[in-house]
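Assemble and predict.
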Amino acid sequence: MRNFRLLVASLFIVLSSCSQPERAPEEVRVRLAVEPETLSPVSYSDAGALQILNLLFQSLLSADLADNQIKPYLAADLPQVERLDSVSLFTYQIREEASWTNGSPVTAADVAFTLKVLKAPLLNNEFLKPQVQFIQDIRLDSSNAKRFTFVCEGYSPEMELLTGDFFILPAYLFDPEALLQPLEVAALTGSLSELENNSDLKAFAARFNSPAYGHSTRVLQGSGGYLLESWENGKYLTLKRKSDWWGNNLPDAPYLSANPERISFQLIPDNTTALMALRSRQLDVLDNIEAAEFNELRQEEDFLKEYAMYSPDAYEFIYAGINTRLPKLSDKRTRQAIAHLLDVKSMIKVSQQNYATPTVGPVPPSLKAYYNNKLTPYSLHQKKAMELLSSAGWQREQDGWFQEINGNREQLTLEVNYRAGSSNYENAAIIFQQSAAAVGIPVQVQAMENSLLSQNLKAHDFEMFFRSLSGNPFVLNFQPLLHSDFAGKGGRNVTGFGTPESDNVLDAINKADTPEVKAKLLKRLQEILYDEAAFISLYYLKDRLAVHRRFGNVKVSGLKPNYDVSAFTLKE
Amino acid sequence: MKQAWQNIRALWRNETLFRIAASYLGLLLLLILLLPWIPLPYGPNDLDLEHIYQPPFSLTYATKSHPMGTDRLGRDVLANVLYGARTAFFISIPVMALAALLGLTLGAGAGFFGDKGFSTSRRNLLLCLLSLLCLGYYWLYLPVQIASLNLGTPMALKSIMAGAVVVVLLFCFSSLLQKFIAPLRQRVAVPVDQLVMRLTEAVSTIPRFVLILVLASFLPPSVLLLSLIISLTAWTGIARLARAEMMRIKQLPYFEAARSIGLNSRELLWRQAFPNLLGPVLVAFTFSLGGLLALESTLSFLNIGVPPTLVSWGRTIASVRSNTAAWWLVVFPGALLTLTILALYTCSHYLSKVFSSKNRG
Amino acid sequence: MGGYLLRRFLLAIPALWALATVVFLLSRLLPGTYGSERILQSGTGYYSKGSETDRQAAYLSYVKRTGQDMPLFYLSAGPATHSPAETAVSYTKQTQEQLTKLSWRYGAQNAKAYIQSVAALKKQWQDSYHNAVPGNAVAVHLQTLQAADNTEPLVDAAEEIRAAAGHPRLRRAADNVLVRLQAMQPQGSLAFLLPAISWHGSQNQYHQWLVQLLHGNLGNSYKSSRPVLEVLVEAVGNTWWLLICSMVITFFLALELSVLMAQKKENRLRKVLLPLLFMLDSIPPFVLALLLLVLLANPNFIQLFPVFGMGYYMPQELGLWQELMQWAYFMALPLLSLVLFNLPYLTSQIHSAISAAMQSDFTRTARAKGLAESAVIRKHALRNSLLPIITIVSDFIPALVTGTLIVETVFAVPGVGRLLLDAVLSRDYPMLTGIVLIIAAFRIAAYLLADMAYAWADPRIRQRMT
């Protein structure tokens, strides 16, 4: 009995004698919500992996988070574009200084190798493959090993970005036996069935598809400023700065940086626990903080002394889609009435604690030149909604709104779908349900798994849904999303939006030469979208993050990952 | 039957704790049934977007206030706690009843018939198997395919009709066959006990919670489906108990006597065995009900298998994760949940005392 | 003894196999595998990265590479009018769907011929007209031809196109479509009721999966594309010590408490402790874990413990003792929750086993011999209640799994429970199958161990087993 009590007492003493571990000041500790499935530069899938890969590898072009501009990273300059009849040419020059970890220079041959890896069959590259399929060939410059030209099919505005938007791999590490050397990039377009029996390719695929190529610290070495030091599964990843990286102190590219000595990504899946880790000063950076908690942190003076808090405008927005193909929703006045029942203000308040901006269309309000500020975003207006319903032919009766459609008496009911497990959509749907019930429209709310939802949307098997879209400030190509050419089953235009005018406007936006013309067209597009009310943009989100005050040069931005950890400098 | 009722009344007179627990449960049930007529300032799904994350007792304005605070959408915690109780019982009691029925039938059957007590002709067995196959194809597989392809109800109806026709044909054909082939007429024993025991083992190889999680991942979130899943996994305990009781009753002298005077087996089961089974099953029922309440709220806490519009304790508690300072979201529903489970366990505890002493004595 | 154990083990295998088969088949019957979602879904950006056809092609090569294009099982049954091989993945999703529907209604041969004729018509139209005439009317009818599943609208659309067609080649193509449609008419509407059973041999997904399983390969996770076994071993490694420690501590505490309560002089303690444990048992695990989290690891209240993970990255190497201390520190709260979840059940069970033993004759004799009470309990009562205790411990496994799941979710420990929950939420079926198998195997192993422990504790049983 006595020894039992002793044991309990000593256990408590031992446990309470432990204190919070000491922190090294030059290390940046970042929270990672989901463990990267793989760090393979061609089959990564989540934002965390992308953030880490950006520190290890480099692409030709990338966004500088300080001013949200596309800048040349591995390339010396933005590409020279030449538009011919059916093809367009993008010529790049790689930076003179650029070199791999072993000191050998980054050359056009590495770019060609990367393209082969992205386009070849048998490889685990299906996730990135569609994105580079328009690049048909690469022409190497025989006089300059660092100069090359991409030959691309047709032309679209996002091509410039996409030609520079993949990580360049070191051929010497990924393919030491030069198995892909004999392959031609041009041969990788079209039918590939012959290549599937190519023994070199098979041998390469067997190695490349193995998990080691997404996990090994030996293989995952790029031209970036960091090396993967360790990866403890389920716990953390650490990155260490290269001792003399070529990108340091380039006079024409001060935005290339590798400042912190060591960056560790601590895996904390749960939001609540991540927040508590931040509060106990065990994290230096935390993004995606829940809005309510963010507000609460802002009240705490002790916390504010140590952490700076930011809420940049993000490029992600929530929207509602209505199926215009259904007879009961084909009248745009009915859809406008529904739009007037979307209480955007309350949605923002509840899900985002006001960290969001209502928007009239898919163009971000922060892009002032393109945003149509003559329109006012839809807001809750029950009387107007009821007037619109009456004018669309609906009769108010005891238990709802009825109309004779194609000989059948139909009631106006709605089923709202959204992705399960996300409180943003859930809140929006429930708030909409309440305001629709107030005017007599019964709404059913149904959460769905993402795969089922997208399948239903593509099969046009839905009435109304909430979803989000994210983009960037560089490319505003809404064609696949809104053009009626894409409205067939399986196409991306799931709402069936599209008038002859909107189709013309969408085509014209992609051909616009000057920002003024583009602005005029985009504003017109927003008007049409607003009027048709099939694709109703609700609000643009703001990101919420906290960064420890001992760091400067944080480069907070609305673009993911919202800060550039490689640029962090220790304040004196 | 009468005996059991007297026992419970004696318990009520003598045990204060039992009295408290039972009256708590009774009151709660009454409250749940009368809830739609009780004037609450807010419904459980009414949003009060002006007052989100309101702590309890903080609002004194006018007549409408939130005595237990609100959650992230301004839903009234009081209304949610009360209606949550309603949901919990409305799900748990039918689920438990179904599971008890299933367990009782299978377990009592297994205990009563044993491995040799039930026999039927080979033709019947064959007919059963073939009919099951055909019905599976025409009544389940084809209609599901037709529905998923959106081919319209006429086709589904045709398939169902076809299923019925095939079964009738099978019946006629096998009757005909039976006349000519003698072995088909032979009777064979169906090892009911073995079958049921293997089934129970198979179901309980996997922890029930895991089984439910796995099954729920295949189905869209819906209360009905979830209830069905839980019922289909919850019967094993009662089945084991019923089987053991049945085997014990079978050995009792009065049962042997009844058998020897030639009462048939159905009569025996109904008149003699079931009243005896009732007590132990009641104990298991109240006990499992407590577990089920916890299970239901755990599932809605984990957001698995339950639609988001379903009012439940788990849903209210889960919303504490986005705001850890809102203690009232855990404390009130958590307390009611714990109290209810406690009351059920207490009742079960005392009931088991009574029934076990009666049986031994 | 050995023979008995072997028999029990062999009996457990069919259960495992049936379970894994059910999970596997169910999972493959469901729509929307992980790969299709990731490749076909053009992400959430406004501009598409890659065209629809490129995506489809990439998806096809993915399906082929991962062997998902094979039939599911050795046999398949379906309407004789529809043959799945014909609808193989060489068409777009919309065409596949249309082909399937038309096959059900009018037979596979007819439907395929029709689909081909429409494809020819479309090509004809694109080649000769797309650039010259803004042929929107034709486009609409073409849409109908590619989507509808009933002959009437199809015939109408084809006739419209034929009427609008200016070019003879286009008209010929439209005629061809009409001929195909004509052929589709007479087929009886009950033909789909006739079942056809086809045999696929060993070239099916189930066979491949089973063969791999027998080689100890559980497949690759959809989510991380890492071998399931590897991920599982890691997760088990993280949970293992937590489980063992919690079990040992709980068991030890339960034993000590029951022994304590069995003593006469501790009557008061028993009166307080039993109801307390009873109440503790009534608190659902997730409520308890959340309460602990909110109370003990929240800087707003008391912060005794860190709350997450399995330790921080440390630049310098730690000694074994330090590492152990760190681990204990991080695991304190999860451990505490697990102990609290399981303590009431174990204590009450062991307590009743011991009190039953205390009433038996031999303890009375022992007491009569003048042994001290605690000695009577420890030497006699405890030894004789060993059998029920073994049963209790082996029955305790399911509760442990549930508890671990909750604890790992709330405290973010990367263990099996968390893995299971993630697999359920993201529908990572290979992972799910693996975890279910592991848990079942664990359970069976526990039963076997319990059997062995019985034999060890009771010579009579040992006799019977041989």
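Residues 390 and 396 of chain A are 8 Å apart (CA to CA).
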